[in-house]
Amino acid sequence: MALTDDEVRRLAVDILKAPTARDMQQKIGASNLANGCNYCLACNLMGDMRETPMLDRAYLGRVWGTAIHALKEMRQKAWLAEQRKADREEWDDIKRQRIAPFARRFPDAQVEKRFSLGLIPGYGRVGSTADLFLPSEGHLFDWKGSKRKDILLLIDFLHMQKGHPEGIFGRRHQDVKLSEAQYAEQMVKMEYKVTGYFAQLQSYGRGKALQGYDVKRMSIVLIARDGTGWFDNPGLDGWEDEHKKHDLYVLSFDYNPEYANFVWQRGLDIWAELQSGKPLEGFERNVNCFPCSLEVKNAQEQAVVTPIAA
Predict the structure, then answer these.
(1) pTM tops 0.85
(2) Is 25 in a helix, a strand, or coil?
(3) Domain boundaries, the chain
């Protein structure tokens, strides 16, 4: 008997929500150490990955993020495989130019390779996986799914950090669709998010440095899920025009071993407090933490207000 439309829809949800290795992770990694919320990091160290019911319900964002990572991994590995094949065969220059320019330039590229960040006594070894590392350049990469609006807000935040007080607000008000009060709130949240990005990449860098690599630079590549890539084609119009709506944005910075050690030490300190008996609720929640803010909002909505007796 043929499936009904409802059964097909349920099948699609089952496929989309099928757990991945990342979903079943019970040990912390670089992204956990980079979490600016002490409460959430403490929960992570105790095995609670903070998958709240509200986060689980809004699952498509996580699905798109996983899909982007899987596609990038597949294509990067395909490039490397084609390069090795080209090295073994007598290919003409024209054919070589069409294949794996990335792999030809970086034959030592490491794609989705797991490595150790260090050992936390009493907890165990902490491992993580970088999306891409180029040992010859000392350059780390991380791909992140985003939205056009959030990329615009990120650009604005970075402009303000460089001393430009107004950023994009006004010029692209129709794109961000926020009041000035909402915009100011988003800038605070963006600072929290960027700090987490920075800490995560620095943790990757520390792990690679412990392996003996000379880590120099790191880049976050944000990819707009609601974009088209129209102005993100090298050599075509709009590629170099910063005023166009770009759906790929790169945020790069130098490796900072002092900051990386600070991030690692914070994890050690929180674990030590847990081992000494400090309860989870004794750790501070960050007001900009997404899981915590969802829990607070849900608790407020579920609270029953009883009238005070006269």
Answers:
(1) no
(2) coil
(3) 5-289
